[in-house]
Amino acid sequence: MTSPADTVLGLEPASAAALLWGVCVFALLVAGYLLIGTRDPMTRRVRALNERRELLKAGIAAPPKRRTQWVDRADMLERMRSVLSALKMLQDEQVKSIQLRLLQAGIRSKELAVAVIFGRLALPIVLGGGMALWVYGTDSFSDWSGLSCYMLVAGTLVLSYKAPDLALKNRIDKRTAAIRKGLPDALDLMVICAEAGLTVDAAFARVARELRRAYPELGDEFQLTSVELGFLTDRRQALENLSIRVNLDAVRSVVTTMVQTEKYGTPLASALRVLSAEFRNERMMRAEEKAARLPAIMTVPLILFILPTLFVVILGPAACSIKDTLMSGQ
Prior knowledge:
Elements: H1 13-37, H2 43-58, H3 64-86, H4 92-104, H5 112-137, H6 146-195, H7 200-210, H8 216-231, H9 235-245, H10 249-264, H11 268-329
Helix pairs in contact: 1-3, 1-5, 2-3, 3-5, 4-5, 5-6, 6-7, 6-11, 7-8, 8-9, 9-10, 10-11
């Protein structure tokens, strides 16, 4: 007889494992059928011809190997899209939100939003199903309780579902930190370009060329903004696209300042100089804040690791001397 603590949702561990494994196998069969069984043999050929026609119109002759890689990736993304569409998992708001986060992470291909959503579906099946098979199908966790095994499998499912979002968030944070670090230097260069008489789009192009080695993320964003300023009819939209791609309040302030200078004709160099000084002061305050937090952070390591060693070094010889004196007196 199994105790109530060894049951999972009212089922014995063996029954729960069999049920979970059956669900995983069924999901894998459905995904395999949607990926392979519903494939149109003409889709890949038509897509390749359309892409080749667009390249010829643009005057671009891509190498055959690279063009084949593009076709293969597009075909794989199309399969993922067909699976998600069959399962009713593609929502416009969700896709737009992921596309925005991809832009903030520096990934220009909006089609990869389908891959992120598909990763949320496939990773829990693969990793969670594999963990469930390992936990309930083998004797590796026989000494664990039923609740511990259930928590391990559930934790694997949750982490595998959140893995694409966590990876994307980590990349966004790193890119945002790199852009924040180089923004004051970029504004100083923008001030020099504005005082030299360059236009806004020429200044963006020049600063992007100068920052390409030191701050490649910021240089990439400025280069794209320069291109959009040259091609878009609405220059304000090109500047606002920069604030959309970079999730940073400082960039929004720069964009708002540049839009106002173009609208009202105020001097651009003086406004950018004020913003540059403000951002440098903000960076210095952030560094001072980290330095002020350091004593509180070092308190726990000091108590756990440094003070015991210090006591042993200082009081150890005295304790040995007192012990030798007491032993000699006896």
